[in-house]
Fold these 3 entries.
Entry 1:
Amino acid sequence: MAKRILIIEDNADLARLLAVNLRDQSYEVDSADDGPGGLAKTERTTYDLIILDVMLPGLDGLEVCRRIREKAAYVPIIMLTSRSSETDRVVGLEMGADDYVTKPFSIVELIARIKAIFRRVEQLRQNCTPSAAGRIESGDLVVDPERRAVTLRGNPVTLTAKEFDLLLYFTRSPGRVFTRSQLLDAVWGYGHDGYEHTVNSHINRLRAKIEEDPAHPRYILTVWGVGYKFTERDAAGKGQ
């Protein structure tokens, strides 16, 4: 089945150009020219990827991204921005964007990034084959890859899509130390060199949600001078 892409872009000429080139790649394409219209389409239709401009009438792209990320279902988002400052790029990533492209950009490069995201999503799905045995338990923490759900002491934990992907990546390799660059590449994909602080902020938010005392974590541990690791499962222990 052809993948469906939503373009939320108020520049009509650019939106048409993107749509033509994406349809040439056999994607199904919808479009919206403002933030509220784009959000409304995501309510009615399931998309495989969203191309989202930052500067939009009605609601800006950052707010649209934030609201999409409040939903349980995960959809990859590529943000388009005319802004070139590091701050704007970081804000987009922090809001949950998977990638960003600065205008003016190459259509060929954008399509390459789209394909890279689809490959990464497919790899994550293959690594999360549905089965009861796929549940990962560590102390009081349970991660269910099939349902993309997390519980702590039996209580549900609400995570963003990227927080869940990061936690799942950790829990699949307990005890293994990852650098920030490795985590950035595995969870966010290529093209984000130099944005390791995005990893730091997501880990801080994860700790706030799953650690009894985030200042003294027992699940996501800092390996000073290297990066982070998820505790060995036996070491997590219940009721400690």
Entry 2:
Amino acid sequence: MEFFIAWFADPIYKGDYPKSMKDRLGDRLPTFTKEDLALIKDSSDFFGLNHYTTMYAADSTGKLEEGSVYGNGGLSEDQDVNLSVDPNWKLTDMKWAIVPWGCQKLLEWLAARYDNPEIYITENGCAFDDKLVNGKVDDKDRIEFFEGYLSAVHGAIENGVNMGGYFIWSLMDNFEWASGYDKKFGITYIEEETLNRVPKDSALWYAEVIRNDGI
């Protein structure tokens, strides 16, 4: 976690890089001047978090596994960690594991590490192979995904995490980087030929969640 998140957040909230990174990387890490720290430290209005999946991490003992899940951001050698997922976890079309309890643990970890800042989940969502059938998109897997993650966020709030807001990804199917239009994250289906927008069942469900202020 320190190589994933604290690399960026520690300088803002604590004024320096995590000790684990400094110990492993030494002078490969840049140093902060007093002027840098005056601009950086305590400069955040809130903690913005994009969250999509959870993985197990284990000491690689210097031997990185070939099948280790991608997601190390090119730092796997420095972390000396192998990532894995439980084979029983459901996967999205992006092959990301659906693990709501991991989201709650992460929120509570952030709250403990950074003195409970106001946290906004700025992206949380899933891609599935949605099909338009008779004018409707029955995306029950996405509804189940959001039910799980919203419940996890609620659990974090009950445990004292200072949540400011939650935003799903995404309003509509979009151009998903190298995957193009193949991966569908939206709660609104876009017809490729006409660009007509069709609310998926998840959009109708989420409208009720907002209307009722809860699941």
Entry 3:
Amino acid sequence: MAVTYQQKTNIALFLAILFHVCGLIGILFTPYKEWFINNTSVNLLLMGVLLIITQKEKPASFWIFILLCFTLGMIAEMIGVNTGYLFGNYTYGNVLGPKLYGVPWLIAVNWFIIIFSAGNIIYRLNEWLYKKLSAQMRPSFIVQVFSFVIDASLLATFFDWVLEPSAIRLGYWQWIPADEIPLFNFACWFIVSAILLTAFRLLKFNKDNQFAIHLFIIQVLFFLILQTFL
């Protein structure tokens, strides 16, 4: 018996909630805090795989988008870590696994998760809004794309703002001077996100991934709780 899209989404949502709740309990309330932190890479990789599995159709344009996220994400991070010209002065710890020029490979997965999820949320909101408007009141295609990119980039940057304090405490990365997150980091996050989200908007693939929306909310709540109690 074939698994329906809704069943795939429900299974993915169950796994996402299970892993994040277990992570919260393990980090905040058990003596195995370091074990849970050191297995962050497993959770991150699983969430990326679940996003791909729950994608309705996977044309070449979808894989091109993933490749763009991986490539630009890694290049931007390598420039940042090795020069400070992007994001600021920071270094990655060993929690996220093997590195290339000082950047963990899994950071590319993180870029895909954040950009894809933020893109799905804003795209769905825009589509809902435009259906409420008459044809005469709808903005031009260029205005729609520009509005989408700005809004989705702000959402992706907001996620980084939520993530930063917990990521530092968990040893994902460290800023130099210690714990001083520069505004330049968020400006660069917005710019890199805008490039990737322009590709997201213009490439033709299905942008109705329900799990992506749920995952974004789960991860925001996860890091807000860690930020509060860690």
